[in-house]
Amino acid sequence: MQHRQVKAPRPARLECTRCGGSSAADALATVSRCCGMPLFVHYDVDAIRSGFRPADLAGRRPDLWRYAEVLPAASSPVSLGEGFTPLVDSPALAARAGVRRIWIKNEGRNPTGTFKDRGASVALARARELGVTEIAAPSSGNAAAAAATYGAALGIRVHAFVPLDASPAVCEQILASGADLRRVSGSFLKCGTEAAAAARKHGWFLYATLREPYRVEGKKTMAYEIVEQLGFRVPDALIYPTGGTTGFVAMWKAFDEMERLGWIGAERPRMIAVQAEGCAPIVRAWERGADRTEPWGDVRTYASGLGAPTVFADFLALRAIRESGGGAVAIPDPVMAEWVGIVGRDTGLFVSPEGAAAAAAVARLRDAGRLAETDQVVVFATATGLKYVGRAPRPAAPHGRTP
Question: What domain range is 62 assigned to?
């Protein structure tokens, strides 16, 4: 089947997320020179709007590159089928949790089994355009697997730095793509330190969370897809498992873009960040009314995607929570393990503990009065449960809602 191809305009500029200072988008960038903070890509929406309306999506390719006008490097993407994942209506789960409707955004359908493919597809395509041939990728596992996969497809050599206790399945994915796998004795933070040192020594590009501007662009397409899949309206809330916060802040950026494009109005979903009880810096900062997080000491969670003890873009995530009237909630590991089974029985989907945590959070938020019986929400299953086979703790004693 032939799909309509789109030649996209180039990004207009990069903007510091702290002070708003601008820089050119045609050179390789990491963080802002002014504040050392994450950079966001901005587009000339006035030039795009007339040719990028909801009706213009008809007949486009069924992957994230259907939104080419608001993506970089879209003139020559290499796609493995990332994005445009199903939004699964889950009435039994909604009844159990006590809300009107739950849709599960099933990101396990991406090529490597996680939403990380969105960021890797866009960021590495842009990096290749800007002359990058070799990268250092620190990761708890899944982001490195995505980087290795897209690096192979794009001709970029990937050096993946992952903890010794990273999932064996993920390590096999990394090796299968021909990447250089480096097992690090220590925490995820140690992986970042070693990757940064190696990048400086060898002249590799450091592909680290929110320390380059283009992974956000890939992950923001989750919000574009949800709005399109819901008939160009927004749900009442997004329930999102949040570690490094890239996807969380990316979607908040996307809603602003869609309003400026005229796709939606000023309405926004409440942004709910879900973390592990054993690593919850965003939850703690939100509960204290703080604008920044403090480093989390002893990380204890089997959900590797939630094991981020420091959060570089914490102020952006906390701003999105507060501006949307959202919140943050922490889920214990045994409850995640229990809800992997609950989601499986209610929907047939085998989700990772991160997605199970998001589902469990709906019931907890409903019990606390922070979600209403009439609410319609999207729960993000950010990865397939196959990534965690054999690694789950003993589930909690059953206590979830029953229909």
Answer: 13-69
